[in-house]
């Protein structure tokens, strides 16, 4: 559980203000209470005060409670949103209505510096949660793409291999092209290093290994590997690989004897959202892996999403991770620029990393068009 310990230690070293827009949900309230007890965060719970305090069991010590509908910040936030979105046709009245919504209010708190990060999605869909973050918090200065990953922890006795792994993109980019897939791979590799301090070994997954099948979908993965290698020559990345060749040493040696990865991959990049979302849920529900995420990459400030099936523990871990992201950004961005920064003991970080060296694109020009699953 070393990676998770690293994240919690980083959060505890500098507790940050994390706004939780679904404050009346019992899981979120319990996670907030635990965050206060363990000293990892300063939670802000949104919602009608009576409902939030009831969810907290009547004890709101150490926790701020704020109702967007009656907040003294409402007017200023509405004016800020109108300024931000007027070119999209949003008038002030519409901005005022939008700011009464907890997800949007939470995102504006982060944008305005009134909170260091936000975690939603226990009740709202991923599409709703991510849309608020993209529209209001926005992309990091050099980011071309917002993507997501899950931190998968294999730590039970029945797990043949134990450790921390990254699965990407399990929550956002539906059908990435080769260049987008390369972006996802490079950002996920940097995030893996940030969380574990270990060197990433990236497996670009497919139904084919080293040319065992021919298809346009295989060609996309091969091209993504070429792009990623050109942009990051020191990155260990192989593909196309089937999962067993990337995860099981004997299978890797048999199927891809010339590969730099022989069953020891730690970052798994799936070819599309269908495969990635199904894959992480199989690992979680059948395999017993602990899944933390989806963690978002490419935003200007921390905003993360929970599954609607999350537990109190899932929410607590995501709060800790978001605190660690915020600390990394604050340490790296003292001059106002989001840069890579290490968590304590890690070699480097890219919590908001925008992979450099790729041709400019605008895949999220219309974030409303994306409809990722919960």
Task: Describe the model.
It is a single chain. By secondary structure, the protein is of the alpha/beta class. It folds into two domains: 1-138 and 299-332, Rossmann fold (3-Layer(aba) Sandwich); 142-298, Isocitrate/Isopropylmalate dehydrogenase-like (Rossmann fold, 3-Layer(aba) Sandwich), CATH 3.40.50.10750. The protein contains 13 helices and eleven strands. The strands form two sheets. The chain has a six-stranded mixed β-sheet with strand order 8-7-9-6-5-10, with helices on both faces. Strands 3-2-1-4-11 form a five-stranded parallel β-sheet, with helices on both faces. Helix 9 (216-231) links the parallel strand 7 and strand 8 (236-241). The longest helix is centred in the last third of the chain and has 21 residues, at 312-332.
Compact summary:
Belongs to the phosphate acetyltransferase and butyryltransferase family. The protein is an alpha/beta fold and 374 residues long.
- Relative strand content: 15-25%
Strand runs, count: 11
CATH top level of the largest domain is Alpha Beta
Form type: globular
Give the overall average pLDDT. 86
What does the largest sheet look like? Answer: 6 strands, mixed
**Rg calc:** 20 Å
Number of domain units: 2
Relative helix content = 40-55%
Task: Give the helix/strand class.
Answer: alpha/beta
Task: Give unreliable regions as ranges.
Answer: 334-374
User: CATH topology of the largest domain, anyone?
Assistant: Rossmann fold
Q: Given the structure, what is the number of helices?
A: 13
């Amino acid at each position: 559980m070393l990676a998770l310990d690293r994240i919690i230690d980083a959060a505890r070293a500098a507790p940050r203000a994390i706004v939780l827009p679904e404050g009346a949900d019992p899981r979120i309230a319990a996670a907030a209470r635990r965050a206060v007890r363990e000293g990892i965060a300063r939670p802000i719970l949104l919602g009608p005060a009576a409902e939030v305090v009831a969810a907290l069991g009547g004890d709101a010590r150490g926790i701020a409670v704020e109702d967007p509908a009656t907040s003294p910040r409402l007017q200023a936030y509405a004016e800020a949103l109108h300024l931000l979105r007027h070119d999209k046709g949003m008038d002030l009245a519409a901005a005022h209505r939008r700011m009464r919504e907890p997800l949007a209010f939470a995102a504006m708190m982060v944008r305005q510096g009134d909170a260091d990060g936000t975690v939603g999605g226990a009740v709202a869909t991923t599409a709703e949660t991510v849309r608020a973050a993209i529209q209001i918090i926005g992309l990091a200065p050099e980011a071309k793409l917002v993507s997501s990953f899950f931190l998968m922890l294999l730590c039970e006795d029945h797990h043949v291999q134990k450790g921390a792994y990254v699965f990407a993109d399990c929550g956002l980019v539906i059908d990435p092209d080769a260049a987008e897939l390369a972006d996802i791979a490079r950002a996920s590799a940097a995030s893996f290093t940030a969380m574990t301090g270990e060197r990433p070994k990236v497996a670009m997954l497919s139904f084919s290994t080293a040319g065992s099948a021919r298809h346009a979908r295989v060609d996309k993965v091969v091209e993504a590997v070429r792009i990623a290698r050109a942009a990051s020559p020191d990155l260990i990345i192989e593909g196309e690989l089937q999962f067993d060749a990337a995860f099981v040493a004997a299978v890797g040696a048999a199927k891809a004897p010339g590969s730099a990865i022989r069953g020891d991959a730690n970052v798994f990049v799936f070819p599309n959202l269908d495969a990635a979302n199904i894959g992480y849920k199989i690992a979680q529900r059948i395999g017993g892996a602990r899944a933390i995420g989806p963690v978002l990459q490419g935003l200007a400030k921390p905003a993360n999403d929970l599954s609607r099936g999350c537990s109190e523990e899932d929410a607590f871990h995501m709060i800790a991770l978001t605190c660690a992201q915020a600390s990394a950004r604050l340490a790296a961005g003292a001059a106002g620029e989001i840069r890579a920064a290490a968590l304590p003991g890690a070699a480097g970080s890219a919590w908001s990393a925008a992979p450099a060296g790729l041709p400019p694109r605008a895949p999220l020009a219309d974030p409303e068009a994306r409809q990722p699953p919960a």
